[in-house]
Amino acid sequence: MTHDEEARVLAHIEAALIADDPAFARRFARILRRSILVEALTAGLLMTGAVLLITGLATKHWPIALGGASALLSSATASFARQRVRQHRH
Question: Is the pTM of this model over 0.85?
Fold first, then answer.
């Protein structure tokens, strides 16, 4: 099955679900938006942590470097936790 065929089949399934149960479609869309938001926030935390860590190390301001390391650790933990949840669901 090609990518275009898969896209058409998924669009057909989505249209059928929306017609059959609009409330489910709204819940699913809300969950999808929330998932995208969490991924964007995690990526932002990763970038911020990297910048803070590099800046702190370059300027020898250890509190800044520690904050950057903490942000990197937090984003990595959140990312791994989301991966485990996704793997557990499938």
Answer: no
